[in-house]
Amino acid sequence: MSIPKQIPHFTPMKTRAILAVVLQVLLACPALAVDRTWIAGTSSTSFNSTTNYTGSGAFSADDLYFDMPVLPLNISSPSNVSSLYILQGATGFYVGGELLVYKEKIGVAANTTATIASKLYTYNYGDSRPVYFDVGAGGKLTTGLHNLGRRELIKTGEGILEFLEGFDTSSPTAINNTVVVRIMEGTVLIGENALLQRTDTPLKVLPVLVGTEDTTGRLMGSGTINGIVQTFGASQSIIETSGDGSFFLSTVNAEAGATLRFRLGDVIVGDGEFTGQNLVFEFTGGEVGVVYTLLEFPSLTIDLDSLQIGSSGYELDPNFGVNGWLIDGNLLQVRFLEVIPEPNSALLFLTAAGFVLGCRLRRRPHV
After folding, report:
1. CA 343 to chain centroid
2. What residues form DSSP beta bridges with 227?
3. 172-177 long-range contacts, Cβ below 8 Å, gap at least 24?
4. pTM of the prediction?
5. pLDDT in tens, 112-124
6. pLDDT tens digit string along 176-193?
7. Which pLDDT score is estimated for 142?
8. C-alpha to C-alpha distance for 160 and 50, rounded to whole angstroms
9. Maximum separation of any 2 CA atoms in the chain, in Å
10. Residue 306 and residue 127: Cα distance in Å, rounded?
């Protein structure tokens, strides 16, 4: 008669202890080791401080990782890294100097905020390999002056990549010498006074591609893009104003199903053509009876009958233009018959609380 084998019982404490031993073995194995340069939490061959690099010379690292917590990294000389990763909970600030990322990726973990305030460059290998800005959900990477070396910029991850006016006050350029910008996921935010363009001579057009057939991309801001904005995929592309006035986009080709979001009072302005049909407009703010300009382009090719509203509480004025929409020369305008603000969370909470209290008062004791 065979004796059944007993299955060992692992408590949570034993499981954690076993996993810790396994992790130590993996880290000790040279074949599995990863060459990482850390800032904070540990020292390395490149950095002797556990909190801050303040050396007087340039530094070089393979893959540069920022752990938590991180104080400002002061770069006093031009420095270079292969790739740059800012881990969850870390906040990296680059002050002064120049930082060259010469491989494919700048990554920011989910729910992590980071700022690159130095001149950020990416090296052109000659094979025009792309550089990925990957920002996780809930994360945000803010940066200023860039020269991407005629490479393709690809935005991935659900977080926000924000371009500000160049931190180098001698130039307002946020990004230049880029072949194309692809917003495959998440948001690219063009801050006020920020400028995206190519700097070739003669000047070439910068394509900005928003969304894919499978992922949602959002282009948002109040700065300037000297290029052609092209949306892709039904309901997968969003162009949005940020509430700071006009958003300049030279030319826009919006595919059917694309969404345009406006804080009413903001205008998307261009010096080329805007084309689109079966577009969805979403609004915040606004008043009844006021004529709002949404688009201002020398050429507007839009089917007014195909336009839709995706925001609840907004009813168009049928006596204005075509069912509330009007193309007046180079302007697309809208007027509302009714604007109903969404109920705020406090009111919803009080309503729910009253409902629950009423139910309790109506209860009868069991007999």
Report:
1. 28
2. 206
3. 173/145, 173/146, 173/197, 173/199, 174/144, 174/145, 174/146, 174/223, 175/146, 175/147, 175/148, 176/146, 176/147, 176/148, 177/147, 177/148, 177/149, 177/150
4. 0.76
5. 887 776 667 676 5
6. 667 789 999 999 999 888
7. 85
8. 28
9. 94
10. 43
What does the block give as tokens for 75?
A: 């770069």
Q: Are 76 and 56 in contact (CB under 8 A)?
A: yes
Q: What is the pLDDT of residues 61-70, one digit of tens each?
A: 666 666 544 4
Cα R_g (the chain), whole angstroms: 26
Please classify residue 112 by burial: count the beta carbons closer than 10 Å to its beta carbon, then call 0-12 exposed, 13-18 middle and 19+ buried. Answer: buried
Place of tokens 């049909």: 277
Task: Please say if the pLDDT value at position 172 is more than 90.
Answer: no
Question: What is the structure's pLDDT at 238?
Answer: 94
Give every CB contact of residue 300 below 8 A, 6+ residues apart in sequence: 273, 274, 327, 330, 331, 332
Give the separation between CA 92 and CA 272, rounded to whole angstroms. Answer: 39
Extended strands (E) in 167-223: 173-175, 181-183, 186-190, 195-196, 206-210, 217-221
81 touches 56 (CB < 8 A) = no
- CB distance 244 to 269 below 8 Å: no
Is the distance from CB of 72 to CB of 49 less than 8 angstroms? no
**Burial class of residue 1 in the structure, from the number of CB atoms within 10 Å of its CB (0-12 exposed, 13-18 middle, 19+ buried):** exposed
pLDDT tens profile 72-96: 555 555 666 667 777 765 555 554 5
SS3 category, 69: coil
Structure tokens at 341: 């603000």
**Strand, helix or coil at 16?**
helix
The beta-carbon contacts of 302-309 under 8 Å, at least 24 apart in sequence, are: 302/274, 302/275, 302/276, 302/277, 302/327, 302/332, 303/277, 303/278, 306/256, 306/277, 306/278, 306/279, 307/278, 307/279, 307/281, 308/278, 308/279, 308/280, 308/281, 309/280, 309/281, 309/282, 309/283
